[in-house]
Specification:
This protein is of the alpha+beta class and 480 residues long. It has one domain: Amidase signature (AS) domain (Amidase signature (AS) enzymes). It is built from 14 helices and 17 strands. The strands form four sheets. It has an eleven-stranded mixed sheet, with helices on both faces. A two-stranded antiparallel ribbon has the order 4-5. The longest helix has 24 residues.
C-alpha cells in the first residue's frame, strides 16, 4: 500500500473530509518523504515541520468537530520562495534576503491558508526568479528527480521537484517566460499558467505589464485545478483581476475531444527547437492526434516576439532591481545583473516599439483561434541538461544570442497572454520527461482545463504518452 504522501491531492482531501485520513498522518508522511529524498534533490529550502504539525492537529480537530472545511483542508503545500510567508523564511533566492522572515503573507499564500492548506515548506528558485535553471547563491542547485545531476528547469523548479517526488501533493509556481512550464515538463508534472488576473498578482514591479502570473503545480490536472480554485480571487490590487474567476468550474468533467479542431505547431514558427525534440514531438503527436475531429499544422504569427519580449522583460527588471544593482552588485547573481543592465540600454522609442509589437501579436494570436479550438506545441526546446550548465548556449549548432532564447517555445506564448496547461507526455529520446503545452486565448482558462483534463486521461492509457514517475527508492538511496 502506498504512503499517504503518494495520494493525489484530491483523493487525500476526500479522505480527510470522510475522516478516513488524518491531516497529521498526511503531514508526517510528507515530512518523512522530504527527509528521505530531499538530500539528493535540494528542492525544499526551508521546512516548517513543527508548525505544520501543529496546524495539522488543529485541522484534524476541525474535522472531528464537524466544522466547515476549506478546499485544501489538511493538505500540506509547498510555497515557491518568491512568495512571502508570514513567520517563515523567504529569501527570493538572494543573498540580500538570506535570513529574511516576513511579517505578512503574499495574497496567494493567504488564500491557500484561508482554504485550509498547511504551509509545510518553501521551494527553491533562482534569484528573484531570473533563469530557467533553479540554482542560487543561498541554497545551490536543485536536481531533476529523474537524474539529480540534471536541471529541473526554473524558476519554479523546487516546486516541480517537490511535487514530482511526492514531498507535497501541491505547490505554488509563477510564470513569466516559462518559469512554471519548463520545470513542469522537465519533471513530469502538470503546471497551469492562467490568464493574467485570474490569480491576483499584487507584487509585480510594473502592475500594467501582466506577463508574470501565478499558478498551481500538481501531479494531475484535477489536482492543479483544486489548488487554482483556492488561489482564485477578485482583487483589484491587481489591475487585471476580473470576474473570469467565476467561470472556473467547481469540478472538471472534460470535453469530447472528438469534437475539437486542433492546431499543432512544433516551434511556433519562431522558437529554436532541438532536432531530436522535434522528432519526439512528431512521434507523440502521431500517438494522440487521432483523438480529435480535425488537426492541422499551423504556426501563430508571433512576428517581432524576441526583441519585444527582451525589452518588456527588461522594463520589469529595471523597475525591480536598478537600485539593488547600484548598491549591492557584488551580492547579485549573473542573471539579475545581465537583465537589469540590458534594460538600462533601451530607449523610450525601444519601449514604445515593444508595446506596439506586443499589441499586434496579441491581436493576431486571438484571431488564430477563429480557425482552431486549441493549440498544442512542445513545452521545452531541449531535453534536461546538467544543472552545472547555467543555460542552453546552442541548439542544433546555432549559438543562442542570450540566455533566454532557448526558452522561446514558452516566452513567445507569454507575449500573447494565453491560458496554458503544461501536460506530461511520456519521455523524450533520452528517457527524460517530455511535456506539451495545451494553449487557448486569454480568458479561455476553464476550456483549456477541461481539454487538458480529458487529454490527460487519454494520454495515461498509452505507455508512449503516460506521465512518467521518478524512482523514489533510487532517490532515497542517493540521499542517504
Amino acid at each position: 500500500m502506498s504512503k499517504p504522501c503518494d495520494l493525489s491531492a484530491l483523493e487525500a482531501r476526500r479522505l480527510i473530509g470522510r475522516k478516513a485520513l488524518s491531516p497529521v498522518e498526511l503531514t508526517k508522511s510528507c515530512i518523512e518523504r522530504i527527509e528521505q529524498v530531499n538530500g539528493a534533490l535540494n528542492a525544499i529550502t526551508t521546512l516548517d515541520g513543527d508548525t505544520a504539525l501543529s496546524v495539522a492537529k488543529d485541522a484534524e480537530q476541525a474535522v472531528m468537530n464537524g466544522d466547515a472545511l476549506g478546499l485544501l483542508h489538511g493538505l500540506p503545500i509547498g510555497i515557491k520562495d518568491l512568495q512571502a510567508t508570514k513567520g517563515l523564511r523567504t529569501t527570493w533566492g538572494s543573498l540580500l534576503y538570506e535570513n529574511h522572515v516576513p511579517d505578512y503573507d503574499d495574497s496567494v499564500v493567504a488564500n491557500v491558508r484561508a482554504e485550509g492548506g498547511i504551509i509545510l515548506a518553501k521551494t527553491n528558485t533562482p534569484e528573484f526568479g531570473a533563469g530557467a535553471n533553479t540554482t542560487n547563491k543561498v541554497f545551490g542547485a536543485t536536481g531533476n528527480p529523474f537524474d539529480p545531476d540534471k536541471t529541473c528547469g526554473g524558476s519554479s523548479g523546487g516546486s516541480a521537484v517537490a511535487v514530482a517526488s511526492n514531498m507535497v501533493p501541491l505547490a505554488t509556481g509563477s510564470d513569466h517566460g516559462g518559469s512554471l512550464r519548463t520545470p513542469a515538463t522537465f519533471c513530469g508534472v502538470v503546471g497551469f499558467r492562467p490568464s493574467p488576473g485570474l490569480v491576483p498578482r499584487t507584487t509585480r514591479p510594473v502592475s500594467l505589464l501582466p506577463m508574470p502570473v501565478l499558478g498551481p503545480m500538481a501531479r494531475s490536472v484535477e489536482d492543479a485545478h483544486l489548488l487554482l480554485r483556492a488561489q482564485l480571487e477578485l482583487d483589484k490590487d491587481d489591475p487585471f483581476s476580473s470576474d473570469d474567476v467565476l467561470r472556473i468550474p467547481d469540478a472538471l468533467r472534460g470535453v469530447d475531444l472528438g469534437t475539437l479542431k486542433v492546431a499543432f505547431s512544433a516551434d511556433l514558427g519562431c522558437a529554436p527547437l532541438d532536432n531530436d525534440i522535434r522528432k519526439v514531438f512528431e512521434r507523440k503527436k502521431s500517438a494522440f492526434s487521432r483523438l480529435f475531429a480535425e488537426t492541422h499544422d499551423r504556426d501563430p504569427d508571433l512576428s517581432g516576439v524576441h526583441e519585444a519580449f527582451e525589452i518588456l522583460r527588461a522594463v520589469q527588471f529595471v523597475a525591480a532591481h536598478k537600485e539593488r544593482l547600484e548598491k549591492h552588485r557584488d551580492r547579485l547573481g549573473p542573471n539579475v545583473i545581465d537583465n537589469t543592465e540590458r534594460g538600462l540600454k533601451y530607449s523610450l522609442p525601444d519601449v514604445a516599439w515593444a508595446h506596439k509589437t506586443q499589441t499586434g501579436l496579441y491581436t493576431r494570436f486571438r484571431a488564430f483561434f477563429d480557425d482552431a479550438d486549441i493549440l498544442i506545441c512542445p513545452a521545452a526546446a531541449v531535453s534536461p541538461f546538467p544543472h552545472a550548465q547555467l543555460f542552453v548556449e546552442e541548439i542544433n549548432g546555432e549559438k543562442m544570442p542570450g540566455y533566454m532564447r532557448w526558452l522561446a517555445i514558452t516566452y513567445a506564448l507569454t507575449m500573447a497572454l494565453p491560458a496554458i496547461c503544461c501536460l506530461p507526455c511520456g519521455v523524450d529520446h533520452l528517457g527524460m520527461p517530455f511535456g506539451i503545452q495545451v494553449v487557448g486565448p486569454i480568458g479561455s482558462d476553464a476550456f483549456v482545463l477541461e481539454v487538458a483534463y480529458a487529454l490527460e486521461q487519454a494520454l495515461a492509457g498509452n505507455p508512449e504518452t503516460a506521465r512518467p514517475a521518478p524512482d523514489l527508492k533510487a532517490l532515497q538511496k542517493a540521499s542517504s
